[in-house]
Write the C-alpha cells for this entry.
Amino acid sequence: MACIKIIDGIKIYIYARDHNPPHFHVYVAEYEELIVIEDLSTYTGGVPVKYRKKVIRWASENQEFLKRQWNKLNP
C-alpha cells in the first residue's frame, strides 16, 4: 500500500496486487471511496462531496501519473 498523495488531509492510496479495474483509494476521516482511474467514477464507497471535488480535480490533471503508479504496483 502506497500513499501517493495527500491533499488537505485527504489521503490517496494505490495498493499493490489489487483487483481490477485500476483504481485508487481515497480516505478522509471515517470515509473511504474507490475511484476508477480511467473515468474517475466511483467504484464503491463515498466521501463527502467537498472532498471528492478536490480529489477529482487533482486526479483529472494527474491520470497518467495514476496509471503509471497502478502499473508499477500491479504488474
About this structure: The beta strands are 2-7, 10-14, 23-28, 31-36, 42-46. The first helix runs from residue 49 to 61. The mean pLDDT is 97.
